[in-house]
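Open question from group meeting: does this chain pack into something compact, or does most of it stay loose? Before anyone orders reagents, we agreed to write out a predicted structure and look at it together. Recording both the input and the output here so the notebook holds the full record.
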Amino acid sequence: MTGTIGAIARPDGSLQATYDGHPLYTATVDTAPGQTRGNDMRAGGGVWHEVTVPARGRPSSAPSAGPSSAPPTAPAGGYGY
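C-alpha cells returned:
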C-alpha cells in the first residue's frame, strides 16, 4: 500500500499526522515507542492497523477485510477514519 504522509492543523493549533489526508492516532495500549499492541484491535466499529514507514519512505499498513473507523484513542468528535 502506498500513500502520502502529511499533517493538518488541529483546532488548538497543534499538528496532526495524516496518511492520504486521514488523521493518524496512537493506541492507548501502546505505552512506549515501538509498541504495536493496538494493531488489529477491534474498536469503534472497525479494525485498527499500524502504519509503518519502511526505509525507502513509503507508508504501508496491514489491510483489513472490515471497515475502518477512528482508533480507540481518537478524541471525542474525532474525524472517524
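Observations to bring back to the group:
The chain has one domain: 5-61.
DSSP finds no helices and seven strands in the chain.
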